[in-house]
Amino acid sequence: MKTIRLVRLSILVCMAFAVTNVYGQDIGGIVKRKLKKKGKDKIEKTVDDGIDVIEGKDKKSDPTVSGGGNGEVVVVSTNEMGGNAPIVNFIDPGSAVFVDDFNTERPSEFPSKWTHVSGSLQNDQVLTNGEKDGVVEAISGYSTIKPTIKGDRYLGDTFKIEIHVYFYGKGNEVYYVNLKNDDNPYANHDLRIANGSLHSGSDGIVRFPGGIQPGWHVIQYSFNKGNLKGYFDGVQLINDPDITHNPEHPRKTFNRLEIEMVSPGSNAAPPRRQMISYFAIGGQGLPLYDRLINDGRLVMNDINFEVNSFVLQTSSYSILDRMVAMLTEHPELSLAIHGHTDSDGTNEFNQTLSENRANSVKSYLTRRGIEESRLTTSGYGEDQPVDNSGTDKAKAKNRRVEFVLKK
């Protein structure tokens, strides 16, 4: 009898270890929800009601391509990425002139924040460790788009670029960031992101140390009055002191850019379409005035408050000080300050909170010399969300302060 009990106890212990291992993997997946930004997870491609979905898996073995029909799983990436971690907060949100994570887009439609230049592209969704994220993918072998920004003049002497791209590790996969000068075609400069290397123009080629693994990768560029620095997954590969130097054709600065995707597997079976999951352009900071004049408003997600409070966090001071500088330089401007919250809490609480937060911002500006008569405040609570998906990312977008130009 004792022997039977010991056997049963042994079986229970083994089952407990097995369950612990299974849930340990699941928890690990939850912790790694940001892995599409770091390129460390295994990715599987499936078809779900006609929508391509990519699902992250914490597998350690090298998979092989299989299937290809509807509903069949096709593994398209393997292994973990080497190198350092991407540079966090590379672009100051307050200086961002363009940001798109494609999360509010409808799959199979053209991305709404972009203008078509050539080729064929569409929005899609990927599922990484249980969290859906939007992407834009190339349907044709060569596709080009550009940010839809009024006037096409937004880069200037100083700017930063961040782009998150996917590599399958098969064929001549390439992404181009084409810097443009519409006043002087000789001033154009192409930044090539190839399978494991960065190219600055036709001569500056640097390969990623140790090669590249299939998956998501983060590329970041910093341009400052001719000097270009480029980072591949946090490793600096480009440090060119003056990419605008050309004795035969003196170059001016860049005014806009285009993104080109070379997707050799777009027509394969199953298709291997190049994808972008995030793209941002940051300026030095005082294109604030230009953005305000062009768009009629400034939407700020980096003016932060204490939780359930209208007390400003110190991290908000830098962007508010820049607002003070802009308003001081342009005394003709008058602004309406609008406060918005997410949907957590009651409608009544959020309405009052949004009003108080708008007033806190006004108080900060007036204490630093801006005339009170130039500023008005309003609170809209949770009534005007910009993202209704209910995710943490969506709530962060909905918690915002907007400065609206008064006519």
Structure in words:
The chain has 407 residues and is α+β, with helices and mostly antiparallel strands. Helix content is 19%, strand content 34%. The chain folds into three domains: 1-31; 93-283, Jelly Rolls (Sandwich); 288-405, 60s Ribosomal Protein L30, Chain: A (2-Layer Sandwich), CATH 3.30.1330.60. The protein has helices at 2-31, 288-295, 317-329, 347-367, 392-398, and strands at residues 42-48, 51-57, 74-75, 96-100, 114-118, 121-128, 131-138, 142-147, 158-167, 174-180, 189-194, 197-200, 204-207, 215-224, 227-232, 235-240, 256-262, 275-283, 297-300, 335-340, 375-379, 400-405. The strands form four sheets. Strands 4, 6, 7, 9, 14, 15, 16 and 18 form an eight-stranded antiparallel beta sheet that branches. It has a seven-stranded antiparallel beta sheet with strand order 5-8-17-10-11-12-13, with no helix packed on it. A four-stranded mixed beta sheet has the order 19-22-20-21. A hairpin with a 2-residue loop joins strand 6 (121-128) and strand 7.
